[in-house]
Automatic annotation (TrEMBL), chain A:
Biological processes per GO annotation: phosphate ion transmembrane transport
Ranges in a coiled coil: none
Name listed for the protein in its UniProt record: Phosphate transport system ATP-binding protein
Matches recorded under NCBIfam families: 3a0107s01c2 (TIGR00972)
Top-level taxon in the UniProt lineage: Bacteria
A cellular component term, taken from the record's GO annotations: membrane
Record InterPro entries: AAA+_ATPase (IPR003593), ABC_transporter-like_ATP-bd (IPR003439), ABC_transporter-like_CS (IPR017871), P-loop_NTPase (IPR027417), PstB-like (IPR005670)
Pfam families, per the entry: ABC_tran
Domain ABC transporter as annotated: residue spans: 5-248
Keywords: ATP-binding, Nucleotide-binding, Translocase, Transport
A Gene Ontology molecular function term of the record: ATP binding
UniProtKB/TrEMBL annotation, chain B:
Keyword vocabulary terms for this entry: Cell membrane, Membrane, Phosphate transport, Transmembrane, Transmembrane helix, Transport
Membrane topology, record value: Multi-pass membrane protein
InterPro entries membership: MetI-like (IPR000515), MetI-like_sf (IPR035906), Phosphate_PstC (IPR011864), Phosphate_Transport_Permease (IPR051124)
Name of the protein in question: Phosphate transport system permease protein
NCBIfam families tied to this protein: phosphate_pstC
Biological process terms in GO annotation: phosphate ion transport
Main location (coarse class): membrane
Originating organism: Actinopolyspora mzabensis
Residue ranges constituting the ABC transmembrane type-1 domain according to the UniProt record: 74-301
Protein location: Cell membrane
Length: 259, 315
């Protein structure tokens, strides 16, 4: 659990268009790394490259290395399906499977990996994951009800429970709170603080206060202009980025002068 | 519903606009018209069929009265249609999956057009094709089925020499309803939320697992409604069956012999020109039964779809 990721000179292309240029960073284990930057700067694209989800767009490809546990995730012969089992993801809009109950949603990933799971084992993991996502007390009496009946914030925590049920090493979160109200946002942020004890977490957020609140490290992405690739301007410990960033672009973005 | 109430409340305060009022009238009229047509059809069938209900049994064509006349037709209709659906529905799901999730985009677009085009081919064309090409071609396979699977009642034989059997009819009907069923299912699969596909892939699902977790559950109600639409077409199909099926009456599950039950629609088409008096009323009575069957089929489909709405993701 909780592994370090070393990204080296990562370029991300859609066809011949370079969307992200030459990103190098080390993502620390048992910590939250936040990625901030203006819209269209490639931070979401970069996040999705970390578990090869961006490959769902047919023309997408990368150059460079993403090394986790001495293994290049983009090495030839590396199966993206395996990568995604180790690097889980939570999306912008809560997306529980609408045809499944709360219980089945959490068990969904589990059942993919081991078909012959005893019911008691599944029960155990479901409870553990829901407790891990601070949702157990709210849903324990209605596990067989559809997940779509929960509130937005509960649905998002359900998605987090579903993601951690397969015990990934890394959890990627793509603006996980942007569709939530402030109280639900608070609940998810609390959860992140707990989860980082056991997981490596990378979060993309548009909300700089959120980045300041939840993250240990912050990376600032920027884009030179329309049609230009996005790039990582700098990454450092969060207090440093928010008080004394090295680059003026970072300072201007954080102080709200652009973006 | 609450919207309409609100609209009425505001209308009281706001000046009534004539164009709005007129258009509202037109749409209401159109809505009422469909109910009138449905009621009219049902009334026509009931009134015209009535004499056959009260006529003495010996005046009904065939022997043994109305029920014994219509029952084999009902059986033949259901057998041919259900068989066609059993063949067509799984194929339609596979084709729709290929078009929406496996084929390269260019090929998928082309296939989409082809499916829509096939849906527009008149049924008489399928009938002619079934009669001249498919029927002779099924003789070989039918003999093989009889020889090796003859212990199954469906293939008891002896195989028909013309190939104009229930088996061939079901195949023709399957080909006929395949495009419409595929089109409905494809439309649903295309609308599978990206969100749910990504959710399953992010858990480490393969493409097949993603289809089972996200695409099929989302499309299940459309698979049912598409199938029922296809079944409705097969139930009512007239010309293709009239041309292909060599009917001799009787109730049998034997699909490959020359003794086949007729279907209601084909029987009406074939018998109508030669009939008069109570025989015509009897044919209309069989039409009434067909009307009732399609109504029941659609109601069952609705019920199945509604039962799943809790989990359909429509919220």
């Amino acid at each position: 659990m909780a592994k370090r990721i070393d990204v080296k000179d990562l370029d991300i292309y859609y066809g011949s268009f370079r969307a992200v240029r030459s990103v190098s960073m080390t993502i620390q284990p048992r910590a939250v790394t936040a990625l901030i930057g203006p819209s269209g700067c490639g931070k979401s694209t970069y996040l999705r490259a970390l578990n090869r989800m961006h490959e769902l767009i047919p023309s997408a490809r990368v150059e460079g290395k993403v090394v986790m546990d001495d293994q290049d995730l983009y090495a030839p012969g590396m199966d993206p399906v395996d990568v995604r089992k180790h690097v889980g993801m939570v999306f912008q809009r809560p997306n529980p499977f609408p045809t499944m109950s709360i219980y089945d949603n959490v068990a969904a990933g589990l059942r993919l990996n081991n078909k012959r799971l005893r019911k008691s084992e599944t029960d155990e993991v479901v409870e553990e994951s829901l407790r891990g996502a601070n949702l157990w007390e709210e849903v324990k009496d209605r596990l067989r009800k559809p997940g779509s009946g929960l509130s937005g914030g509960q649905q998002q925590r359900l998605c987090i429970a579903r993601a951690i049920a397969v015990r990934p090493d890394v959890l990627l979160m793509d603006e996980p709170c942007s569709a939530l109200d402030p109280i639900s946002t608070h609940a998810v942020e609390d959860l992140m603080a707990q989860l980082k004890e056991n997981y490596t977490i990378v979060i993309v957020t548009h909300n700089m206060q959120q980045a300041a609140r939840v993250s240990n490290y912050t990376g600032f992405f920027n884009i030179a202009g329309t049609g230009q690739p996005g790039e990582l301007v700098e990454i450092d410990e969060t207090p440093t980025i928010f008080s004394t960033p090295t680059h003026t672009a970072t300072e201007e973005y954080i102080s709200g002068r652009f973006g | 519903m609450s919207n309409t109430g609100q609209g009425a409340a505001t209308a009281r305060r706001v000046r009534k606009r004539p164009a709005d009022q007129a258009f509202r009238g037109i749409t209401t009229g159109a809505g009422v018209l469909i109910l009138v047509v449905l009621a009219g059809v049902a009334a026509f069938l009931l009134i015209e069929a009535w004499p056959s209900f009260v006529a003495p049994a010996e005046e009904i064509p065939g022997e043994g009265g109305l029920v014994l006349y219509i029952w084999p037709l009902v059986f033949g209709t259901l057998l041919a249609s259900v068989l066609a659906l059993v063949i067509a529905a799984p194929l339609a799901v596979l084709i729709a999956l290929f078009i929406t999730h496996y084929a390269p985009r260019k090929l998928a677009q082309f296939l989409g057009y082809v499916v829509d085009l096939l849906a527009a081919v008149p049924s008489i064309i399928y009938g002619l094709w079934g009669f001249t090409v498919l029927a002779p071609a099924t003789r070989g396979p039918a003999e093989w089925l009889h020889e090796y699977l003859g212990f199954v009642p469906l293939f008891a034989g002896p195989p028909s020499t013309t190939g104009r059997t229930m088996f061939t009819t079901a195949l023709v009907l399957a080909v006929m309803i395949l495009p419409i069923v595929t089109a409905v299912i494809r439309e649903a699969f295309l609308q599978t939320p990206k969100l749910h596909e990504e959710a399953s892939l992010a858990l480490g699902a393969t493409r097949l697992e993603m289809i089972r977790m996200a695409v099929l559950p989302f499309g299940s109600s459309s698979i049912i409604s598409g199938s029922m639409l296809g079944l409705g077409r097969a139930l009512g199909e007239t010309m293709a069956v009239a041309i292909v099926l060599s009917a001799s009456g009787g109730v049998t599950f034997n699909l490959i012999s020359s003794g086949n039950p007729a279907t209601i629609a084909a029987n009406i088409a074939l018998e109508f020109p030669e009939s008069s008096g109570v025989a015509i009323d009897t044919l209309i009575a069989s039409g009434l039964v067909l009307f009732a069957i399609t109504l029941v089929v659609n109601m069952i489909a609705r019920a199945v779809i509604n039962r799943r709405t809790d989990f359909s993701g429509a919220s």
